Amino acid sequence: xxxxxxxxxxxxxxxxxxxxxxxxxxxxxxxxxxxxxxxxxxxxxxxxxxxxxxxxxxxxxxxxxxxxxxxxxxxxxxxxxxxxxxxxxxxxxxxxxxxxxxxxxxxxxxxxxxxxxxxxxxxxxxxxxxxxxxxxxxxxxxxxxxxxxxxxxxxxxxxxxxxxxxxxxxxxxxxxxxxxxxxxxxxxxxxxxxxxxxxxxxxxxxxxxxxxxxxxxxxxxxxxxxxxxxxxxxxxxxxxxxxxxxxxxxxxxxxxxxxxxxxxxxxxxxxxxxxxxxxxxxxxxxxxxxxxxxxxxxxxxxxxxxxxxxxxxxxxxxxxxxxxxxxxxx
Length: 330
Ligand SMILES: NC(=O)c1ccc[n+]([C@@H]2O[C@H](COP(=O)([O-])OP(=O)(O)OC[C@H]3O[C@@H](n4cnc5c(N)ncnc54)[C@H](OP(=O)(O)O)[C@@H]3O)[C@@H](O)[C@H]2O)c1
What we know:
By secondary structure, the protein is an alpha/beta fold. Helix content is 29%, strand content 28%.
């Protein structure tokens, strides 16, 4: 029997007003797929890039890459999930801004009973990102307890998880954020030092905090506005880990300047390389579930929106009005 789903779709790139809630048919899952009924959907900055066209996407496009709910049916070949399972995911292709969908099972994992649906939807994409950054996106020689790292947008969705996880790993995370209130939130969640990068010169402050040494890694999702100064925060052989462009895409640069600034390394990471296989996805999700169920990392859902109010959610995210995670409720 064909069901329908209320789904957020765009027909062309543009502003939040391009997002329309439409009724679409949802069929049965094919090989390697599941049908899931969402209880909550996660909001992520990548949704803004895909909506606006910073990342060009084929049209029409259903949005959203994170969700949690109940598996309704599984297709041939799916063995790790069954109808009735509580589940959550961060996954391609987009389409989680919906009441229900059919999707590949590969990136969908069972949600532990101790984690509610809203928390599941708020943490999968952001939490697995914090995981691969702090544990796998490392400078030569790795990170040791006590090492300084710089993490931009530390009061955001990925940021608040990273602050807590870095503390659990014994790292000294210096967090930047765009207001004093956001700085206080990052500090309350484990950042050892915080810098309001709208009012302070963050490179100068990082040098001061580290006794002139600089940090071993900068985790930079802000992009255009922070790129240049971030390079000045690194110690020799340090790693510039770029993973987003909330302020705009980083312009091309000449590699020679990496030598001049201390033989630096640069990488641009994306979660979807890390969760390319089902095994890798499960391992990362288990690691995340471990720190959340043990209480080392608390998922802060600071904004909740009805699915029909998705345009407001995007406006708030783009206007830097949100902190922590946001969920859309179908
Ligand atoms: N590559 C990956 O695998 C991956 C995965 C997940 C997320 N990301 C990236 O990580 C970042 C954080 O994602 P999120 O979903 O958790 O979002 P978020 O951090 O909750 O929101 C983005 C934050 O970026 C900061 N920002 C600085 N300049 C901005 C500007 N001009 N416009 C808008 N925001 C600006 C704002 O915090 P302040 O006001 O404190 O500056 C804002 O709250 C995003 O860039 C996202 O694309 C990358």
